[in-house]
Design brief:
By secondary structure, the protein is mainly β. The protein has a single domain, classed as Nucleoside-specific channel-forming protein, Tsx-like (Outer membrane phospholipase (ompla), Chain C, Beta Barrel), CATH 2.40.230. A twelve-stranded antiparallel β-barrel has the order 1-2-3-4-5-6-8-9-10-11-12-13. The protein is globular and about 55 Å long.
């Protein structure tokens, strides 16, 4: 499904003329809170990334690719191993802000992998004062080391607000995902013991503030949060520091 989705996106966009595009590379550092490190095996890590997107009058495309712990070895275990992740989402306009939304997330580590695929109905509202928001509700499919198949539903939103402060261009951005109605054999064993995330629902997201310091460089700070997600039952939180180069 992942390969077919990517081929479809590539075919649609190959000959299309976009209204806007953006691309950047970034260096990032994720610092878990002490509370999270005390409750989980999570460890701080650096990652490098490539991010880009484009828009047309009929839809929008966004994606990223990250390499986590780039100086580590792939054969190491735990939170400090070399990992890679990628994400693609595609919105097809239907009518007056309503959209068909498709997203695909993939994480490859050792000894595990995770692939989450969502197809949803969405709506994008764009104000005339720098704010836009796009909620969505859809079905969720999981393919990972331990489970493969339909895995309930996902409600999500993206929110962005561009504003000026002290003469600088700033952006407040949030992404938030709530999974619910997960399949029982995804999060519980036959005897009722928890597996990984260990619950019928999960929360995943981040709230960020971006400083667009020039046309080339930008920096930002994010509050990252998750519960019953990322392989842990406990609530997790972190701060992410980012430096971007736009081209």
């Amino acid at each position: 499904m992942r390969l077919l989705f990517l081929l479809l996106i590539f075919s649609i966009t190959l000959f299309a003329k976009s209204l806007y595009t953006f691309t950047n590379v970034s260096i990032n550092y994720l610092d878990w809170t002490n509370d999270t490190e005390n409750k989980t095996l999570d460890g701080d890590f650096a990652y490098v990334g490539f991010e880009g997107g484009a828009g047309w009058d009929w839809g929008e495309l966004y994606g990223f690719a990250y390499v986590e712990n780039p100086t580590k070895k792939y054969d190491s275990q735990g939170s400090d191993n070399l990992r890679s992740s990628s994400y693609v989402d595609f919105d097809l306009n239907v009518k007056e802000g309503f959209r068909v939304h498709i997203q695909d997330y993939y994480l490859q580590g050792k000894p595990y992998y995770v692939n989450d695929f969502v197809i949803a109905a969405a709506y994008k509202y764009v104000s005339d004062f720098g704010l836009w928001i796009r909620p969505a509700l859809g079905v969720h499919y999981t393919n990972d080391t331990y489970y493969d198949g339909f895995n309930g539903y996902m409600a999500e939103w993206l929110l962005n607000y561009d504003f000026k402060a002290f003469g600088e261009n700033l952006s407040l951005f949030q992404w938030n995902e709530i999974e619910f109605g997960r399949q029982r054999n995804f999060y519980l064993t036959a005897d009722g013991s928890r597996i990984g995330d260990g619950a019928s629902w999960g929360l995943n997201g981040a709230l960020s503030l971006w400083w667009n310091s020039s046309t080339a460089f930008g920096t930002g700070i994010q509050y990252r949060y998750a519960q019953h997600k990322l392989g842990n039952y406990a609530y997790q939180s972190a701060v992410i520091y980012t430096l971007k180069y736009n081209f």
